[in-house]
Specification:
Elements (H helix, E strand, L loop, with lengths): L1 H29 L4 H17 L2 H15 L1 E4 L3 H7 L15 E4 L2 E5 L4 E9 L4 E10 L5 E10 L32 H15 L5
Helix pairs in contact: 1-2
C-alpha cells in the first residue's frame, strides 16, 4: 500500500514536472532563448523541490561516518584489573536495569564501578550522532567508546502517522554507518560492555 502510494506520487509529480519543463522550454523558444537551457533549469528546479536535501545530507553523512564513527578501546579489562587489584571480585551487575537521565545522556549502571552512557546529538540535515561509552564512575575514565550516525527519518507504514514531511523522504533514511557490513564495531563494543559488566576475562 505504501509502495503504491509512492509510485502514484512520483508518476503524478513526474507528469507535472514534464509539463512544466515543456511549457518553460516553449516560452524560451518563443522568446529567442535556449529551450534546452531553460528546460533544464525548470527540470532541476522541479527535482529540487523534492530532493534538495538528498545530496548535501549524503555528503555530510558520509563525512561524519568516515571521520568520527567507530569503536575505540582505551583500556582493556585486564589492564584495569591490574590497576585496581582485588576490586573486580567485589563487582556484580544489578538484579534489575538501573538507568537515569543526566543532562543530555542516558546512564545505565553495569555494576558498582562501571556505567554505560548513551548520548544523542543532532546534526544538520536530519543526521543524528549516537555516542556510547563505558565509564569508570569513580574516576570518570572512559574505557571504551563507540560512535555511529543515522538519520531521524522514521518512514511511514500502514497504521502509523508521519511526524512531518521529512518522514516521507525514505531516500534519506540511514540506519548506521555500518549498515552494509553487519556492524562488527558495534558488536565489539557490546561484547566489551558485557565483559565489563560481568567482570569476565576475554577468551
Amino acid at each position: 500500500m505504501i509502495g503504491l502510494m509512492y509510485l502514484l506520487f512520483f508518476i503524478v509529480y513526474g507528469w507535472i514536472s514534464w509539463r512544466v519543463v515543456k511549457a518553460v522550454a516553449r516560452r524560451a523558444r518563443e522568446g529567442g532563448r535556449s529551450p534546452k537551457l531553460w528546460g533544464g533549469v525548470a527540470g532541476l528546479a522541479m527535482a529540487s523541490l523534492v530532493f534538495w536535501d538528498w545530496l548535501p545530507m549524503e555528503v555530510l553523512y558520509r563525512y561524519d561516518c568516515a571521520r568520527y564513527a567507530g569503536f575505540t578501546q582505551y583500556q582493556s579489562l585486564e589492564q584495569w584489573k591490574a590497576e585496581n587489584p582485588g576490586v573486580a571480585q567485589t563487582l556484580h551487575p544489578p538484579e534489575r536495569v538501573e538507568s537515569r537521565q543526566e543532562g543530555g545522556r542516558q546512564r545505565y549502571v553495569l555494576n558498582q564501578r562501571f556505567a554505560w552512557d548513551i548520548r544523542y546529538t543532532r546534526h544538520p540535515l536530519h543526521i543524528r550522532e549516537r555516542e556510547e561509552r563505558i565509564v569508570d564512575t569513580r574516576t570518570g575514565k572512559v574505557l571504551a567508546r563507540y560512535v555511529d550516525f543515522d538519520t531521524d527519518i522514521g518512514g511511514v507504514s500502514v497504521g502509523s502517522s508521519a511526524r512531518g514531511l521529512s518522514d516521507y523522504k525514505i531516500w534519506l533514511m540511514r540506519r548506521s554507518c555500518e549498515a552494509d557490513s553487519g556492524r562488527p564495531l558495534e558488536r565489539a563494543f557490546y561484547n566489551f560492555k558485557y565483559l565489563v559488566k560481568h567482570q569476565m576475562e576475554r577468551k
